[in-house]
Amino acid sequence: MKILVTGAAGFIGFHVCTKLLEKGHEVVGLDNINDYYDVNLKYDRLLELGIPMNEAKVFGNLVASGKHTSFQFIRMNLEDRSELPNLFKQENFDIACNLAAQAGVRYSLENPESYVDSNIVGFLNILECCRNFAIKHLVYASSSSVYGTNTKIPFSTTDSVDHPISLYAASKKSNELMAYTYSHLYGFPTTGLRFFTVYGPWGRPDMALYLFTDAIVKGEPIKVFNNGEMQRDFTYVDDIVEGVIRIIKQPVKYRKTGDTKYKIYNIGNSTSVKLLDFIEALESTLHIKAKKQFLPMQPGDVKKTWADVSDLKTDYDYQPNTSILEGVKRFVSWYSNYNDIEIKS
Questions:
Q1: What are 143-194's pLDDT values in tens digits?
Q2: CATH numeric code, 208-232+271-306+322-338
């Protein structure tokens, strides 16, 4: 199949592109390479796909071909209402996988406009292109943050998500509603994936594992919010990608909601791990005891997440299998190589 992957220079998008190419698909990656975090990490991910930095830096219609003859990269904003339709018309995609978004819960308190531009306006443009250019299936990233302060554990897709506590969460809930509307009106299938705390090699430097590892290696204290009373459904990136790929490959696995080909799935490790246990796995891997700075809860954050993935298991035989310790070890191995830091094994 010919597949569009937006957010191709991002953490999950990079891994999805890599796996799709390994499986023989033709992939067009799209990203605007914004500076929410160090753009060099994004360029380095693209370099792994064979796209040199000088080509990745250019906006517009330039198509950069990577070391994979079946991969192309285009730098573009999803908000671009003229160029995005041109891309869809030119490439004739079978599937669209929208992983591009302005990420981060806490950043949404500082820069709310970017979430509306990318996550809502950009997503509307994707939906319009899917409608107008006969896309067979739209797979898109939602987030576990839509559950807000939900206290029912584990989180189920049947739970109410009407009370998001950050603009990021609200934008992801909006995506789900918009996708439902387009599936209902225009009949093309949409699948939303609520990701749960993804970690692993090539991960974002603003996320906990990267921040913790960086601080511990440098002998600096790590910030532990809510005095350590946090739990997360930490999910290794390869397990996430396996679920995404199965859904991309088999769009026939739909349960109709009335007359609408619309589905939402949780995609997580299906367990909840205490933050302090996660830190302990990292300490064990690094052979360094962390200096912990205990802090109160941050606005927009939640105490506990836990994914019920039973629907995904039933429909796609999906079962994550990477332990926390193994996943942390793989991240640390990548981190040490990427940053050229020697870490005792």
A1: 999 999 888 999 999 999 999 999 999 999 999 999 999 999 998 999 999 9
A2: 3.90.25.10
Domain residue extents for the chain: 2-199+235-267, 208-232+271-306+322-338
pLDDT in tens, 33-75: 999 999 999 999 999 999 988 888 887 665 667 677 799 999 9
Radius of gyration from C-alpha coordinates of the chain: 19
- State in words which class domain 2-199+235-267 has: alpha beta
Active site residues: 168
CA separation for the pair 340, 317 (Å, rounded): 39
C-alpha to C-alpha distance for 231 and 276, rounded to whole angstroms: 9
**E-strand spans in the chain?**
2-6, 26-31, 64-65, 71-75, 95-98, 137-143, 190-195, 198-199, 222-225, 231-232, 235-236, 262-267, 273-274, 292-295
Any idea which residue has 């199965």 for tokens? Answer: 246
**Taking a C-beta distance cutoff of 8 angstroms, is the pair 140, 191 a contact?**
yes
